[in-house]
């Protein structure tokens, strides 16, 4: 009992309670703060709010960059915020050198999933109506085409009016998702994941420095994560609606052609785009649905395995991890290093220079392993490029 009390005290810190309160109030009054009212009426296009969000996010990013430059110029101590975390770029992650491999397959799956979850599910719902699938995407909830676990989780109070068979299907499909897919959903299937990765790639393409999060910053995200999880599961019981503050609803329904009032979710999406521009997978670090699925990681078939003998403690995996999971690097005994935060993106394996030190497995079958050859092949190309650049610079200097 005392253990449970201590655990609850750890979760319900004053910060969590205050954030919960503020977001609850905002959610309850969200109806009066309609962000894009024209989304729900007959005028205008469903896509218009998304374009406005995009425009406001770009303005926000430009403002942040300007502010950062000013802060760093006036206070050199803040210079660390301008510097990007040192990153190794093996295995063809340098622009123009991407080789066909696990990461390319991941991008392909993300793209296919994006279209399947938006248009495929819409088509399925309109054709077969009222079926429940173990999937997590918004358009299916408009007009109740297909029921989804995410929507039911955000409206747990609706379980009261459901029949036993409906409850069984909801729980069964949720359990199936956790066991078969786990947070593979976040790394490969979620439309929000693709949007964030595209935002990150855009920043890299523009050669703008991102923000490096240290352990302290990651730990500061914890109360926010728990707050959102509590609101996600509990808001419906006090008359609120988590969908009103969820950024995901701003994208998929609009792209599928559904008009929805976005309330506070429009603002949330702007924050997510700006955040993921500077910090890779920013929203995944606080996503309540992702974390809820992650909490069931012990029964998930997807796992990250580590060979502690092969590991040379270089720390490249930690540097590459968008979720800041330090145990992947510090673990010295356990073979299984899967955690609730791991989104199965495979970045740590891609950047690990030691043969088989890290691997991703499904049901015990290791299908993606760290490889020195892949790591070195990327570096050899980088090395040649670097030598060419040095020669060019020396030539220019001597002239
Ligand atoms: S531990 Fe590896 S697979 Fe998991 S989130 Fe971090 S980089 Fe991705
Ligand atoms: S698992 Fe690989 S990348 Fe991580 S510390 Fe060990 S050798 Fe380095």
From TrEMBL:
Keywords: 4Fe-4S, Electron transport, Iron, Iron-sulfur, Membrane, Metal-binding, Transmembrane, Transmembrane helix, Transport. Pfam families: Fer4_10, Fer4_5. InterPro entries: 4Fe4S_Fe-S-bd, 4Fe4S_Fe_S_CS, Electron_Trans/Redox. Residues 302-331, 333-363 form the 4Fe-4S ferredoxin-type domain. The chain crosses the membrane at residues 12-38, 44-67, 105-124, 167-190, 226-250, 256-278. GO terms for cellular component: plasma membrane. SUPFAM superfamilies: 4Fe-4S ferredoxins. One of its GO terms (molecular function) is metal ion binding. PROSITE patterns: 4FE4S_FER_1, 4FE4S_FER_2. Gene3D superfamilies: 3.30.70.20. This is 4Fe-4S binding protein. It comes from Acetobacterium wieringae.
């Amino acid at each position: 009992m005392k253990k449970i009390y201590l655990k609850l005290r750890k979760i319900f810190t004053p910060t969590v309670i205050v954030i919960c309160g503020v977001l609850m109030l905002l959610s309850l009054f969200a109806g009066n703060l309609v962000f894009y009212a024209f989304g729900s009426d007959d005028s205008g296009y469903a896509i218009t709010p998304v374009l406005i969000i995009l425009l406001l996010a770009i303005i926000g990013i430009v403002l942040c960059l300007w502010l950062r430059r000013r802060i760093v110029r006036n206070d050199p101590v803040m210079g660390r915020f301008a510097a990007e975390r040192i990153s190794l770029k093996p295995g063809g992650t340098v622009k123009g050198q991407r080789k066909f491999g696990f990461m390319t397959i991941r991008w392909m799956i993300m793209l296919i999933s994006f279209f399947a979850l938006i248009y495929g599910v819409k088509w399925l719902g309109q054709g077969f109506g009222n079926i429940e699938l173990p999937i997590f995407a918004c358009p299916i909830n408009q007009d109740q085409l297909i029921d989804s676990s995410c929507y039911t989780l955000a409206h747990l109070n609706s379980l009261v009016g459901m029949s036993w068979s409906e409850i069984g299907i909801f729980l069964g499909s949720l359990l199936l998702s956790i066991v078969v897919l786990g947070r593979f959903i976040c790394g490969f299937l979620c439309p929000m994941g693709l949007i964030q990765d595209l935002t990150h790639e855009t920043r890299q393409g523009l050669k703008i420095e991102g923000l490096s999060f240290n352990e302290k910053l990651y730990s500061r995200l914890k109360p926010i994560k728990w707050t959102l999880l509590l609101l996600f599961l509990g808001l419906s019981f006090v008359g609120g609606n988590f969908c009103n503050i969820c950024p995901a609803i701003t994208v998929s329904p609009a792209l599928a052609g559904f008009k929805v009032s976005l309330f506070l979710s429009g603002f949330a999406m702007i924050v997510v785009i700006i955040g993921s521009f500077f910090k890779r997978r920013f929203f995944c670090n606080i996503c309540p649905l992702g974390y809820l699925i992650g909490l069931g990681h012990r029964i998930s078939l997807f796992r990250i395995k580590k060979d502690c003998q092969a590991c040379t403690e270089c720390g490249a995996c930690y540097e590459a991890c968008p979720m800041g999971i330090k145990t992947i690097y510090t673990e010295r005994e356990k073979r299984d290093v899967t955690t609730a935060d791991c989104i199965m993106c495979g970045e740590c394996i891609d950047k690990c220079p030691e043969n088989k030190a890290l691997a991703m497995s499904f049901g015990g079958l290791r299908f993606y392993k760290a490889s020195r050859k892949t790591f070195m092949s990327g570096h050899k190309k980088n090395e040649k490029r670097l030598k060419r650049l040095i020669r060019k610079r020396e030539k220019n200097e001597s002239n």
